[in-house]
Amino acid sequence: MILGLDIGGTKIAAVLGNREGKISWKQQFQTNPQRGFHTVFEDLVNATKNGIENSEDNIEAISVSIGGPIDVLKGVIKSPPNLPGWDNIPLKQLLEKRFSLPVYIEHDGNAGALAEFFFGAGKGFNNIVFITMGTGFGAGLILDGRLYRGTTDAAGEIGHIRVAEDGPLSYNKAGSLEGYGSGTGIVLLAHQMYPNVWPSTSTAATLYEAFKGGSSEAREVFEKAAYYLGRGFAMLADLLNPERIILGGLGMRIGDAFLPTARRVFHEEALAQTASACEIVPAQLGETIGDVASLCAAIDQGRKPDGQPETF
User: Fold this and answer.
1) What's the CA gap between 249 and 130, in Å, rounded?
2) Which of 155, 192, 201, 245 has the most CB atoms less than 10 A away?
3) Closest alpha carbon to 48 in 3, 102, 2, 9
4) What are the backbone dihedrals phi and psi of residue 65, each rounded to the nearest 5 degrees, phi first?
5) Which of 128, 112, 164 is nearest to 237 (CA)?
6) What are the chain's domains?
7) Read out DSSP for 184-234?
8) Could you please report the per-residue DSSP string of 84-150?
9) pLDDT given for residue 307 in this prediction
10) Three-class DSSP category at 282
């Protein structure tokens, strides 16, 4: 049994699950990161203790999914924007000291990619890109059947790529892919295009409701976002030649608002050879993906070189 921790800026979940991704127990609480690391960490420890007490089987390892930047193998958290005050936190060391268990930590985008690769829309494929379309916009890359982290664990920061000369200011860059593909960015785009209709305090959910209700303004916002998303997907396809681009977050929940246009632009922009080999699909695990992803650092990093499960 693995105890998984899904640590985000809004909520933290502790789950119990096995190597097949089956969840048997869950506890969730609000992060409220303004309380500071040490207070949040004690809540995290208590939730972990509850999980251990509720497990009918021995806990083999603790597995963590958390937003970057992080040093994955050392397990050091390096000032994630959604967790202010978590500056060079040796989370792996702290958890190992408290619980005397192996601890594995992974970037949440990579963990999502692993979850879909092992159990979801990426199962049976060797080359996939998983995209987190939430507050931010990042990717996890599975290339030739293995997770690719890059030289400094920063591979997949595709939200920072500039796809337009101007646009919503997101990821500290106007015209970035995050500005057109994240929930935060799409709201900024709506406000930029129609400031009298969409205040900056709007949400992607309210924008989508308006789209479903026939709003021409909402439709035009999603059309523009979809155009640049399609260009971004084409860049990924031409560079990495994946079999699937798998969309989490907004891609699962409101894909009908932008995917038809994004797919059309993708096929116009990408090489025919790469586009014909690549499907753009929503994540198969749906709303359970965060829970399953929290197990995947241990499942992946705990494997032997031949791919067989390790005895943690």
Assistant:
1) 11
2) 245
3) 3
4) -115, 125
5) 128
6) 2-107 (3.30.420.40), 121-284 (3.30.420.40)
7) HHHHHHHHHH-TTTS-TT--HHHHHHHHHTT-HHHHHHHHHHHHHHHHHHH
8) TT-EEEEHHHHHHHHH-S-EEEEEHHHHHHHHHHHHSTTTT-S-EEEEEESSSEEEEEEETTEEE--
9) 56
10) strand
The rounded distance, in Å, linking the Cα atoms of 70 and 19 is 24
The answer to whether the peptide bond before residue 195 is cis (omega within 30 degrees of 0) is no
pLDDT by residue for the chain (312 residues), tens only, comes to 999 999 988 899 999 999 999 999 999 999 999 999 999 999 999 999 999 999 999 999 999 999 888 999 899 999 887 788 999 999 999 999 999 999 999 999 999 999 999 999 999 999 999 999 988 888 999 999 999 999 998 899 899 999 999 999 988 899 999 999 999 999 999 999 999 999 999 999 999 999 999 999 999 999 999 999 999 999 999 999 999 999 999 999 999 999 999 999 999 999 999 999 999 999 999 999 999 999 999 999 987 555 565 655
Global pTM reads: 0.91
